[in-house]
TrEMBL record:
GO terms for molecular function: hydrolase activity. A motif (GXSXG) lies at residues 45-49. This is NTE family protein rssA. Keywords: Hydrolase, Lipid degradation, Lipid metabolism. It comes from the Bacteria. One of its GO terms (biological process) is lipid catabolic process. The gene is rssA_2. InterPro entries: Acyl_Trfase/lysoPLipase (IPR016035), DUF6363 (IPR045943), NTE (IPR050301), PNPLA_dom (IPR002641), YjjU-like (IPR037483). Residues 14-184 form the PNPLA domain. The keyword Lipid metabolism applies. The active site is at S47 (nucleophile), D171 (proton acceptor).
Length: 301
């Protein structure tokens, strides 16, 4: 265990978008940051981005990559048979439990994670109170931490909800996949955003079929229905705010030039290409990212 983990970027927030297996791209970008010794002291992770958060703060690039590439070959990770039986496509008990334990395919030394003094926010959606997040002050236990990551990643229809401490949680991106307000509320006015959508992507409203499916799935919970149906507006608004911030040199978005995998993709070749695409953009952009981050550290504000 590295007991002397230190960070070097303190005035910029890092926001890691979710997107399921699309985070293969994010893994490539984040591994470039680690390779360059760019250690940001405040990180927000949402949905699959919360898994990236854990591996970034633990500084485990090999597991970062494996989460969104080789792991799909594990027969215990995803199952359409389970999906059609109502148990969810992604096997959350295994992914966030056994796979993360010593000897498991995604095991990291959690002492390394907890040795990092960074502040973090793991975003989830509680069925009654709505969007919320956990911080570094809420847990020092690996299993508890991974329950929070699981809660943040519990994508409706593809995963069952996470029942934790008497409450029911769903994917943190239910109402907005880019919760920049969290960073603002914590006093940050500079944000580095790692996205899994192309720069000009505009989220469309849910089509009538998906609306019907979600209404049936969340019958009796109008709060979640409303969040899901308005998600596209909130997401697109966040993107526009980030673009305005970029013009003021207060934000920097790193986006894929192309995204050809789905959030539940199991095509290993395609996922490896997506990871390689992230690495390529990371290597091209890391100098600019580093310069921009260092400018923020010199800011007197």
């Amino acid at each position: 265990m590295d007991k002397e983990k230190k960070n070097n970027i303190f005035k910029t927030a890092l926001l890691i978008e979710g997107g399921g297996m699309r985070c293969a791209f994010s893994a490539g970008i984040l591994n470039c940051l680690l390779e360059e010794g760019i250690y940001i002291n405040y990180v927000i992770g949402i949905s699959a981005g919360s898994s990236c958060l854990v591996n970034y703060l633990a500084r485990r690039p090999e597991i970062m990559k494996k989460c969104f590439t080789d792991f799909v070959t594990d027969p215990n990770a995803m199952s359409w048979r389970s999906f059609f039986k109502g148990g969810g496509y992604m096997q959350s008990d295994y992914i966030y439990g056994q796979a993360c334990q010593p000897g498991g395919p995604l095991h990291i030394d959690f002492d390394d994670f907890f040795a990092n003094p960074a502040s973090y926010r793991i975003v989830a959606y509680e069925e009654k109170q709505g969007p919320m997040f956990w911080t570094e002050k809420d847990s020092r236990d690996p299993e508890d931490l991974m329950m929070k990551v699981r809660a943040s990643s519990s994508l409706p229809l593809f995963m069952p909800p996470t029942h934790y401490q008497g409450k029911t949680y769903y994917d943190g991106g239910i109402n907005n996949g880019l919760p920049i307000d969290i960073a603002f509320d914590d006093g940050f006015d500079r944000i580095l955003v790692i996205r899994t959508k192309t720069r000009n992507y505009v989220r469309p409203p849910l089509n009538p079929l998906r609306q019907s499916i979600l209404r049936r799935n969340f019958r009796g919970n109008e709060k979640i229905q409303e969040a899901l149906f308005s998600r596209y507006k909130n997401y697109n608004q966040s993107v526009e705010i980030i673009k305005l911030m970029e013009k003021e040199n207060k934000a920097l978005m790193v986006c894929p030039e192309i995204m050809e995998v789905s959030n539940h993709d199991r095509d290993l070749d395609a996922l490896n290409k997506t990871y390689a695409h992230g690495l390529d953009i990371g290597k091209r952009e890391v100098g600019r990212i580093k310069t921009w981050l260092e400018e923020g550290e010199k800011d007197e504000k």
